Write the structure tokens for this entry.
Amino acid sequence: TFTVIAALLPLAFVSGLMGPYMRPIPINASAAMLFSLVVAFVVSPWLTFRLFKKHAQEMVEHAGEEGPEGASGHGKSHGISEEPWLVRRYAHLFRPLLHHAWRRWALLAAVALLLVGSISLVLLRVVKVKMLPYDNKSEVQVIVDMPEGSTLEETAAVARNLAATARTLPEVTDVQVYTGTSAPFNFNGLVRHYFLRSGPTVADLQINLLPKHHRDRASHPFAKELRDLLQPVVEGTGANVKVTEVPPGPPVLSTLVAEVYGPDLDRRVALAQEVREIFSSTPGVVDVDWWIEDPAPKLEVEVDREKAARAGVSPEVVARTLRVALGGTEAGLLRDEHSREPVPLMLRLDRSQRSSVDGLLDLRVHGAGGAMVPLRELVRAEPAKRERFIYHKNLQPVSYVVAEVAGGAESPVYGVLDMRERIGQLTDPSGAPLTVLSSTMPEDSTGYALKWDGEWQITIEVFRDMGIAFAVVLVLIYVLVVGWFRSFITPFIIMAPIPLTLIGILPAHALGGVFFTATSMIGYIALAGIIVRNSILLVDFINLELACGEKLEEAVIKGG
């Protein structure tokens, strides 16, 4: 019992976002094992005594009547028969292994070969490693980003076409379109910052599916087909469309995230562009995007203070006039007896006038002496480029390149491995190889570096912590077994079957076509505790037989 607890309890100390997801498993399982121990030592004996008290007395009386040697007089009672057929068959197969050394070595070689073959399934990508398996949810979200400068009407038209295409799939029950704003966000949207999406160039589609028991396929295969259907719809529009699924575990910024660090914005963007091209050319990597705005024009209006002073107009009046013309202002409230609340009256320049530079510059303001002065005589209007947003992480400037995985391996682990060689060929502005980090942040912000994040980061953290937990498990089990058998060699014999469980685990994953995930690792660690418990019972039984004078060969066969 304590070996099983020792195998499970270290999993409660897994760090990162997966910690709260995994912690209930070892805590509840350990509590259940302790409760079962109390039941085995307290409740079960008491119930046995209460329920079988009369039957036990009858057995004692019957044994006294037969005498110490049994009714036959030869030490065997009438109730005992010869060994079962299965026991005889097992002894027939196992006894030659004890008599011939070459048979034992052949068996060990076969087991070792099976173990190596099972592990090679992971190396050959027959069994793929992933954080968590895909879930089967009843909703999918589509994120639409139009080119900078697109109008709200253009974005709405593209969103309506995408919604009409999505409705052609039989699993779709309804589609809700949000244009110019974000859809109601969940935990995934909170981590991906969907709540910050607003403006004329963005749209969200919330797609609801039939209940999982009423459709023939899960949400992930549906999302892959939906992605293939939507991409042709936006060809020629410049729109970027991403199909987002609800993650089965902790949400991340994206499945694949490359964080490009560097002090200079333009050089950092150039590096991010190279990374984005590598993403786009990698099979199985889809929905490639980056957190860098495309260049967009803007109009910079600067007040000529000398001319404004001669005309008797303050710069603040010019700024307020342009602000009202473009954004509008609340001029008052309309109180209607049919309305519950007053209706605000907005004063703003007509769309046809505020959409052109000439329409804005033709506006007039009051000057000295009450003269109306056109703005074109007071300001200089020059075209310019809109500044890009600058993102920071841990106080270091960063640019994000993000993507999802679909088709192929469908795991970020293999996406990163497939791109590793080409990413390693990138250089920083000085010509030196670009520093590539797997899980740690750059030491300073003076150099250029690329750090992998997203599900890759969580996968590394979880399997690292679970590997450490498994090492602690082995040490705890060894200490417990040493204390029980008072031997430093016996624990190695008892713990030897632990790696052999991979002979069953990995081929089973291959036959089932499923990922080896964090939950698989939890099962492997728990299985180690169960196997050690069985090994302890086996060795303990053999020792008891030897103490009763049984030969080692017979004791081993009986124990098996």
